[in-house]
Automatic annotation (TrEMBL):
The lineage of its organism: Eukaryota, Metazoa, Spiralia, Lophotrochozoa, Mollusca. Residues 1-26 form the signal peptide. The keyword rRNA-binding does not apply. It comes from the Eukaryota. Residues 39-159 form the C-type lectin domain. This is C-type lectin domain-containing protein. The chain crosses the membrane at residues 315-339. The keyword Signal applies. PROSITE patterns: C_TYPE_LECTIN_2. SUPFAM superfamilies: C-type lectin-like (SSF56436). Gene3D superfamilies: Mannose-Binding Protein A, subunit A, Tie2 ligand-binding domain superfamily. GO terms for molecular function: scavenger receptor activity.
Length: 356
């Protein structure tokens, strides 16, 4: 006869009490008529159809389920609560290997390594019989295990994975983990392992989004390189947004230093204006040094068109002026001579013809 392991039963009771006192625990979603088991993150259901162990196993597979595996004492407590209203016995997913005394769960886990819940007076069947495990033997504590020939017709308990949910941005056992602050999208992560569900925020990579971009790279999935126009020897930029840490070299716009200075500006931080003496409608100048690209307007010279240009002496103007002056003088002289002759002529006409 097998003896019940009292320490396991005591541990089961204490663990169940602890489970009930947890302030934060995973929430799971089960299909209609399936019962939640938070501790194993599964859903289970009792079936009263009478089948052998093998037939029950096949039946569960139609639901994508298996015969129930009981590895936690909390599961026994949940089962015992449900079995209060049932009188049938039910197969669960453990059986004895042929020719050995050890029992194994159908996932090939040895029962010796998991929680044990045999009832005190479990019968010992001949080794030649394939033995499987069931629960709810009449007259004993609800939920404890018993063994019988696997060919016996009984009800059975199927189990399938539940859809587990924690609170927002939580994961792990008892929802004790917090999703990384660098998770992208809505910041949610996988409830089991914490992997970010919607990628990472710019500047981070990895399943948990906990690895910053390497030096010289930045942005979404670290796919971008810092600008070659970042100031400083190492051309360093912020791994999130690419803003150059030490500013830009002359001629480029902060903060990313990807674009040259805008029209009409140049120099460090694009803080200086191109000269108004630059030729052309838009006064274009070199974004680095401010050199006027289309030359200077008339009267100015130099790379920045900031030097007043002296006008050269124009002799042609003097010649024209001299000619104009000479012409004017000649006209005046001739006019005076003509006037003088006219005056003399008038005096002669007024004098008496025959006077002596």
């Amino acid at each position: 006869m097998k003896l019940a392991v009292k320490t396991d039963l005591l541990r089961c009771i204490l663990s169940y009490i602890l489970l009930l006192t947890q302030s934060v625990s995973p929430k799971i979603l089960c299909h209609s008529q399936w019962i939640e088991s938070n501790v194993s993150s599964t859903c289970f259901k009792f079936f009263d159809y009478k089948k052998s162990f093998k037939e029950a196993k096949i039946f569960c597979q139609y639901f994508g389920a298996i015969l129930m595996i009981i590895k936690y004492c909390e599961q026994t407590k949940i089962l015992s609560e449900e079995l209060k209203f049932k009188n049938s016995t039910y197969w669960v997913g453990m059986r004895q290997r042929p020719s050995v005394s050890e029992f194994f769960w159908i996932d090939r886990t040895s029962s010796a390594t998991t929680f044990l819940s045999w009832y005190v007076m479990a019968p010992q069947l001949p080794r030649s019989i394939l033995v499987c495990t069931y629960i709810n033997e009449p007259g004993i504590m609800k939920g404890l295990w018993a063994e019988d020939s696997c060919k016996t017709q009984r009800g059975f308990v199927c189990e399938l994975p539940a859809v587990r949910t924690c609170g927002a941005k939580q994961f792990g056992l008892r929802c004790s983990g917090r999703c990384s602050k660098e998770c992208g999208g809505d910041g949610e992560c996988d409830i089991t392992n914490g992997n970010c569900l919607h990628g990472c925020l710019p500047g981070f990579i990895g399943d948990l989004c906990n690895v910053a971009c390497a030096n010289g790279t930045y942005g979404d999935k670290c796919n971008f390189k810092c600008s070659l126009h970042c100031a400083g020897f190492d051309k360093k930029c912020d791994f999130r947004d690419g803003n150059c840490t030490a500013g830009c070299v002359k001629g480029y716009q902060e903060p990313t230093c990807q674009q040259p200075c805008g029209r009409g500006t140049y120099g460090q931080g694009c803080s200086r204006n191109c000269s108004l003496n630059c030729a052309g409608r838009y006064k274009y100048c070199n974004s680095t040094e401010g050199t006027c690209l289309m030359g200077c307007v008339r009267g100015f010279t130099g790379p920045l068109c900031d030097i007043v240009q002296e006008e050269p002496y124009d002799f042609s103007v003097l010649i024209v002026a001299s000619l104009c002056g000479a012409s004017t003088l000649a006209v005046l002289t001739i006019s005076v001579l003509i006037w003088s002759r006219e005056m003399v002529f008038k005096k002669q006409v007024k004098s008496p013809t025959g006077s002596t």
